[in-house]
Amino acid sequence: MMGMPIAIEIIDPEGEEAHIDEVLAYFHYIDETFSTYKTHSEISRINNNELDLAAASDDMKEVFALSDETKRLTRGYFDIARPAGGYDPSGLVKGLAIHRGAEILRGHGLKNFYVEIAGDIQICGKNSQDEAWKIGIRNPANNNEVVKILKLSDCGIATSGTYVRGAHIYDPLAPDRQLEEIVSLTVLGPNVYEADRFATAAFAMGPEGINFIASLPGFEGYMIDRRGRATMTAGFSAYAT
Description:
Elements lengths: L5 E5 L6 H18 L7 H6 L10 H16 L16 H18 L5 E5 L2 E5 L8 E7 L2 E11 L2 E7 L20 E8 L2 H13 L4 H6 L5 E6 L4 E3 L9
Antiparallel strand pairs: 1-2, 2-3, 3-6, 4-5, 6-7, 7-8, 8-9
Helix pairs in contact: 1-4, 4-5
């Protein structure tokens, strides 16, 4: 979706390939609607002044409303309006899509599975060993190395950083400021939508982002700065193996 890899694993014996196909079809719809790289997408038509937001789909209006809410909750550090003009809601849409993809599987009575897009994951139930899922956090300086392994169940995890996609996040309050102080910020939350939107905002805050995550009830975070030093919230170590 949006050029990012997707992974879905279902442990429940009731799981069927048709369930995965249904989630993938939903992701295809999200891509066709919200991709800023497709000229025919709804968001591109809005950005090109070919479609007014008032005439947009209910899903588009909801994403704009959720983006406004997130901007308020993050004191302006999350903003889908681009400095050069137009809108890019991908910092919220990806997590929302994963979360709702997981809801599709739950709607079929499935309880043990995970849904991932590019490292952001909704984790449900247990893995094939009937244990909590083991999720690794990559070393930003070495993609083949894992710096932390977490045991997770029924939660979301999202990472914002520059080590894979380069500099694609900006500080809406100071658009010209280079975000160089930190390279990776991982957030655990009640679901991947919440984790993803706050991870994006916290990364834009720079080193203070980890304190913002610590202030959110039910969230934990793990930040790596450009010198390779890690800072974590008080309850994060409870999830590490």
